[in-house]
Amino acid sequence: MGTTNSKKRVVYVDYMKSLGMMTIIWGHIMLVGITNAVVYAFHIPLFFFLSGLMFKKSRYPDFGVFFKKRVKSLLVPYVIYSFLTWCVWVGYAYLTHARTESYFMPLLQTFIAQGSGNFLVHNVPL
Q1: How is 42-104 classified by DSSP, letter by letter?
Q2: Is the CB of residue 100 less than 8 Å from the CB of residue 93?
């Protein structure tokens, strides 16, 4: 149960990630109960732990290279996708005459990234 294929994947880490994905799905399906409390106690920390476990400092010459790569691969798509879904939301709200306090506040909430409390209404899962 070591590794597979030429990229040297660590099989047990893949299994643990699979378990983590199943617990996230479980957490979103079950809204109350002791099993949900147990799942919420470890499913996200599990992904953080596994990410740190597989991190190799040798892949990045310095922190700047690491930071730029993460901004390019995570933050740029996040901001673009938020803007595009905001455009769709504004169009829908305008065409349906939906009551909204502000069209621009949800776009600003992209940078706060708080999905509850009527923030980020254009894309709560984001």
Answers
A1: HHHHHHHHHHHHH--GGG-SSHHHHHHHHIIIIIHHHHHHHHHHHHHHHHHHHHTT---S-SS
A2: yes
Tell me how far apart the alpha carbons of residues 69 and 39 are, in angstroms, rounded to a whole number: 31
The CA distances from residue 123 to 16, 77, 79, 113, in Å, are: 29, 14, 12, 10
Pairwise pLDDT comparison (93 vs 120), residue with the higher score: 93
In this prediction the pTM is 0.64
pLDDT 10s digits, 54-100: 888 888 889 999 999 999 999 999 999 999 999 999 999 999 998 88
The CA distance from 46 to 50, in Å, is 6
